[in-house]
Design goal:
By secondary structure, the protein is of the alpha+beta class. The protein is built from 15 helices and 27 strands. It has a five-stranded antiparallel sheet. A five-stranded antiparallel sheet has the order 10-9-13-12-11. Strands 15-14-18-17-16 form a five-stranded antiparallel sheet. It starts with a helix and ends with a strand. The C terminus is likely disordered.
Length: 759
């Protein structure tokens, strides 16, 4: 044990030393890579200053050429020929001259001394296109790139669109006297060679020669690097210009596009170097991404790849030295340990023999203690432990007898209760039942295991398995009212309370089910519901009779009038049809309320139902200058519901809101997920509802609308209650009304029927 501890300590010390050495070497190499990147960045910045000066000189020459050409060219492009442009280009020492004109949605090359330029579109050229628009508007060019002068702008060095192998310098002149932009430009190998000389590739090459461990140096363009058109070697068929190439300079051999793109973004966001340990092309490398910001240009990232061999070779040498020293120390420790072992083992052997006796249950005689050293103190503690174990063993015997008596008492209580109790193991076998279980279901202890599959009805097997799964997961479930089968196959209505029994480790080992016969209770509740329903229907019938009497009186009066005059009046017929339609609407809503149709509960997203309602009523809302504003949660809002019934509720509420705003306005629909509740709010900007009317809303045939029946809101409340939800109305008179609906989320175990038939 002691030897192992020493080896462990030496191993930890060796590991810490190697880790510190590796960390220091890594930090030193990262600093070197950062220094190299900064040197290249400074070179790029210096080259940029030189390039700006050269471009300015060329731009001034191109502007003078443009002014001279404008004096000789006809202001109407239709009178200018390609031969004339070619003559002027040769005369003023430029490669070519093109003329650009504005179309309905583009600026294109209409005439040119170079046939390849004809028809080129500039709409996708970015800031070039913006500069052309400024020139045509006879205003100063607003883009920051290139050189801007009076009536003139010159773009930076760039690869030619019509001749991609050349780097060119363009100038664009427009003073408003002609119907075209004059575009003289220079195309030569001298320009291309100059631009390439200005690139830092030579510094990159020399840096790698000085430090062979630098495998690669790359200038990354964050705007286009990693695009869908970029190849694995860094080339990009879609981004070929100097300004948008993914690789600004250097090579891209040691690359992993996905990891490089993520590291580049991290370096730019943090403005700090990012260093990764990677394995690329079969080599373990250290790759550092250094963000660079030069004045007047977009920030970019320099990637430096260093061979990890520089670090690993130093660590390997350090490891060999440390192993040699550790080996010598370990040998010395073994020699000293062997000498001490002989002195210490004799009393330990006696202690070990005593411990073995205690393990076999032999607590006497105690160890003989002669000294006061640590081993003697240990022997004294073992003697005390043996004495305590002897006392505890005697107490355990007494406790065992007490537990046996408690068990017999509990069994008598369980067998004496009127509720049926049975336990089920994790394999689904019934392991015990009480007397009440035998009396309720008819099974005895001998045959209950064989009849287990017949105990739970087949159509409830899936529901029962789901309850057991939730219990195993730690859920505390309320009693559930369900059906169970007796031994003779008949069903009995029971209320079942279930709980899980767990072992010492907290793992489930069995389930306890307590069943209570609720057949008689359900029968009484059904009688009460029928009585309450008859009372409600009677009240509604009286209201329906009152509501129908008024339109019937109108119909009778019109019919008598037409009978007396012997004349059919179209206006009277229209009014009578309207009254008949009102009677039909009242009777239909009454039938829906008194006798609902069969419904099927399904799992639906409330957001989709609300979107369907707003889509359905969108055209009608538009006619009345009403707009919908929806604010729904980003996460799904699943509920168990009958979709058509919920649509009926939402349509009723939204139409009420529309009718409350005859002059137009906004209806706001808000949906939130709050805990286990789905919250829906529908608000309007109408006049609102007086405080004295609010408590009466929902009563049959009470309405504040001229054509309303008062049944719509009552039906809506019945539907929401059937969905275990709550419907509330809030109103600020003069400012609008809000209807709030709360529904239980589908995560709860809802006690809703799969199908509700009309009674």
């Amino acid at each position: 044990m002691l030897f192992g501890s020493v080896v462990l300590i030496m191993g930890l010390n060796l590991t810490l030393n190697l880790y510190a050495a590796r960390s220091n070497l890594r930090k030193e190499n990262v600093n070197n890579m950062k220094l190299t990147a900064m040197q290249i960045a400074v070179s790029v910045e210096q080259s940029s200053y030189s390039s700006i000066y050269v471009q300015r000189i060329i731009a001034e020459n191109l502007r003078r050429t443009s002014i001279l050409a404008a004096e000789e060219l006809d202001p109407d492009i239709n009178n200018v020929t390609a031969e004339r442009l070619e003559t002027l280009a040769s005369k003023y020492g430029v490669s070519n001259i093109s003329l650009l004109v504005k179309t309905d949605d583009d600026i294109v090359v209409a005439k040119s001394s170079d046939p390849k330029e004809l028809g080129l579109s500039t709409k996708g050229w970015g800031f070039w296109y913006e500069a052309f628009q400024d020139l045509l508007a006879v205003r100063p060019v607003s883009v920051g790139q290139g050189e801007s002068m009076e009536h003139f702008w010159s773009g930076p060095f760039e690869y030619s669109t019509s001749n991609p192998e050349f780097i060119e310098k363009w100038g664009y002149y427009y003073d408003g006297t002609a119907n075209y932009i004059i575009d003289p430009y220079i195309r030569s190998t001298a320009v291309s060679d100059y631009v390439k000389i200005m690139q830092p590739d030579e510094i990159v090459r020399r840096s790698q020669e000085v430090n062979p461990a630098l495998l690669e140096i790359t200038g990354f363009n964050p705007q286009t690097f990693g695009s869908s058109t970029m190849a694995s070697d860094g080339s990009d068929s879609a981004n070929t210009k100097l300004r948008n190439r993914p690789i600004k300079y250097g090579s891209y051999v040691f690359g992993d596009i996905e990891k490089d793109k993520a590291a580049i973004g991290q370096a730019l966001n943090s403005r700090e170097p990012v260093t990764l340990d990677l394995k690329l092309r079969g080599k373990k490398v250290l790759k550092s991404y250094i963000p660079v910001s030069n004045p007047g240009s977009e920030p970019y990232v320099i990637g430096v790849v260093m061979d990890y061999f520089v670090i690993s070779s130093v660590i390997r040498t350090e490891l060999i030295h440390n192993l040699l020293i550790s080996g010598l120390l370990l040998i010395l420790f073994l020699i000293c340990s062997y000498v001490l072992a002989g002195i210490l083992t004799r009393p330990i052997q006696a202690i070990l023999a005593k411990v073995n006796d205690v393990a076999r249950g032999k607590f006497e005689p105690p160890l003989e203690v002669k000294n006061r050293d640590e081993l003697s103190q240990l022997a004294q503690r073992i003697n005390a432990m043996s004495s305590n174990l002897l006392q505890h063993t005697n107490r355990l015997g007494q406790t065992l007898e007490e537990n046996r008596a408690v068990k017999e008492h509990l069994e008598s209580v369980i067998n004496g209760t009127s509720d049926a109790i049975h336990t089920v193991d994790m394999e689904g076998r019934i392991t015990s039942i009480n007397k009440a279980f035998e009396g309720l279901f008819g099974w005895g202890p001998a045959d209950v295991a064989e009849q287990l599959q017949q105990f739970v009805p087949e159509d409830l097997q899936e529901q029962e398995q789901e309850r057991l799964k939730q219990l195993k997961d730690g859920a505390v479930l309320p009693p559930v009212e369900t059906l169970r089968l007796k031994q003779d196959g008949s069903a009995v209505e029971v209320s079942v309370s279930s709980s899980v029994i767990r072992d010492e480790d907290g793992l489930p080992k069995a389930f306890v089910h307590v069943s209570r016969d609720i057949t008689e209770r359900n029968r009484m509740e059904e009688l009460l519901r029928r009585s309450e329903k008859l009372t409600t229907v009677g009240q509604l019938a009286a209201g329906v009779a009152h509501e129908i009497r008024n339109p019937l009186t109108t119909l009778r009066g019109f019919l008598q009038l037409q009978q007396e005059k012997q004349l059919l009046v179209p206006l009277h017929v229209k009014l009578m049809l309207s009254e008949l339609e009102r009677i039909n609407m009242i009777v239909s809503e009454f039938l829906i309320l008194a006798k609902p149709q069969a419904v099927h509960f399904q799992l639906k997203d409330v957001r989709d139902i609300l979107k369907d309602v707003t889509s359905l009523l969108g055209s009608q809302a538009h006619l009345f200058s009403i707009e919908f504003e929806s604010n729904f949660a980003d996460t799904p809002a699943w509920v168990h519901c009958e979709e058509n019934q919920l649509k009926q509720v939402f349509i009723n509420i939204v139409k009420n809101a529309m009718e409350a705003m005859p002059q137009g306005g906004k209806i706001t629909l808000v949906q939130k997920n709050i805990g286990d509740t789905i919250w829906i709010e529908i608000s309007d900007e109408g006049e609102g509802i007086p405080e004295d009317i609010l408590p009466k809303l929902g009563e049959p045939f009470f309405t504040n609308k001229e054509t309303g029946t008062g049944l719509g809101l009552m039906i809506s409340q019945r539907i929401i209650q059937a969905h275990k939800g709550l419907l509330e109305i809030y109103s600020d008179y003069g400012h609008g009304t809000t209807v709030a609906i709360k529904l239980p989320a589908a995560g709860e175990k809802l006690d809703v029927p799969k199908q509700t038939e009309a009674e």
